[in-house]
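TEACHING EXERCISE
Course module: macromolecular assemblies
Task: Read the component lines below, then compare them to the predicted structure of the full complex.
Student: A.B.
Group: 4
Components provided:
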Amino acid sequence: MSESLGKLRAALDEVDDAIVAALAKRQELVDRVMRSKRARTAPLRDVAREEAALARIVGRGRAAGLSDAYLTRLFREVMDHALRRQQEQLRDEQGVSETATVAYLGDPGSYSELAARKHFAARASGMQFTGCRAFPEILDAVASGRADFGLLPIENTTAGSINEAYDLLAATDLAIVGEEIYKVEHCLLAAGDVPVSHIRRIYSHTQALTQCSEFLRTLHDCQLESVASTATGAARLSAEQDLSHGAIASAEAAHHYGLHIIKRDISNHRENYTRFVIIATTPREVDPRIAAKTSLLLATRHEEGALLRCLNTLHEHRLNLTKLESRPRPNTPWEYLFYVDFEGTIADPNVQAALRELTAHASFQKVLGSYPARTTRDTLPASPRTPTAASPVVAPPPAPGSDESAAELRATLEKKPYKLVSRLSRATDSVVRVGAAEFGGARPVMIAGPCSVESRAQIFAAAQFVKDAGAAVLRGGCFKPRTSPYDFQGLGYEGVELLVEAGRAVGLPVVTEVLHPADVAKVAESVDLLQLGARNMQNFSLLKEIGRVDRPVLLKRGMSASIDEWLAAAEYILAHGNQQVILCERGIRTFETATRNTLDLTSIPVVRERTHLPVIVDPSHACGQRRWVTALARAALAAGAQGLMVEVHPDPAEALSDGPQALTFELFKEFMSAFGR
Ligand code: PEP
Ligand code: MN
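Instructor-supplied answer key:
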């Protein structure tokens, strides 16, 4: 007999209660840790400790049948909460009331309210939140003391800066005391569970309508109406209860106004974040143990090179600039006010010295505030990491040995048709960043995954496995260049979606091949690295199109291309604007038929001598048989390759392409341990 649903639900409730009790206990411990840390001067956040703790947690989870990605996501949230709580405790010593009022834009359920609640979530629950009609009302509320804090949206990662907010900051005496980042996830809401095709009118904020333009274009006979905020649209829909109307707003707004979500995830860009600043009447000091940023308003003197001198001053004081925005100066045409954000706090004597020097080049200067940073490298979420055995270090490029051979090399390179990729244009190795991976850095980067994306289950299983084994990038072909038209051609855009989703789920950037110029811009929007395959190395239309996007590219060597032809192909990409090229040796055609291709290891030292671009090796396509892959990979690193790309499949016997060369999970684990991972 099956167990009763009621009993099971009661058991689930009990488990949930235990989770809540455990979280409360954890919070109490976090507070005690904070008290014991009080006297320490080290930074509050200890990333290495977070990485080790996450590694321990996912280890325990794995033994209990829980996925790494799931636990990592959950515990990142838990750790972020702990850090914020500790930060707040340090700041509370400055006497901010537990029952402060926060003014935000729009109605309850607006993104501003959600961001405000997120920002103050680490404090006690007595905070009050009050909605305002317009930006100036928020500033008034704070200036008059009706609110202790105000929240202003200042920029969005897809729509850009919010000019009105910047202009108000210039005019006010209020200080910036914090910042918050909120991920915008637009949904289409309706009064009932109706099909999307029934909707004839949609309410939302103009920005939200713009951010969902691609989805909205697919609707027929539907009017758009812009309203004060996304929550205002949801409120209106809820009042009307008209089943032919819809609103674009957050899932929380749907909940708040009792509406149905009829479609999720309708933004043009999946990664859509809004940055808010928190304002108050007086500046708040930031404890030096908290990673902080400072915002500055600056009008440069009307003289040549003034802006450059200002930026140089920051540079000389090693202050990392995180944002520079210009706005017209009121009533002075063609002069500008600059908003400058940099890492550091005004309590730091170095920052104070820099600010003093800046005044020499500025006609006006005002510090808007220092506050805990949420957007710098120091604030990126930790990943589970156990200290590993030393992994190999990339060999340096060949040294010329003597002045004569250096001169000879220079003379050779001067005659080459490529200039931008040439070592002559840059002596140091270029580093190409793909997510957290650095091609051209000190350690070789491993790319792994199946030849083709075949199904959700296949790519998710591969993603999880290669991530856990230590790969830094996930591969998966979606548009496949196949010799026979009757072979599997790839899942196309459906495959791209699956690949991106799988990568995101496990925290890996993804690479996929593009075959047609028309697909380049679109695929570049969602993947982290584009691949230009061996068969297309001299497809000049494709090279030019790839040169026009701001996305790293993996350029494979053509199977009968010389090294110089390969570098000239890279030159096409750089010449059209895109400077982020990684080269990939994958074997060339020779008289040898025992292997699929012949891995030209000779090319590695030659390429590293001729270009500053990073070069990696794909041993899988070179040899065509899984049992030879590891030997070639070792040789490639010994020759100076800056990374490897290998094919891995959960079940190679069933693979729809390149099964014989795909490593099984077990072989991939051995492969990675050969490189100290
Ligand atoms: C691939 O990486 O799956 C591929 C088709 O590679 P190449 O272009 O090197 O043959
Ligand atoms: Mn392949």
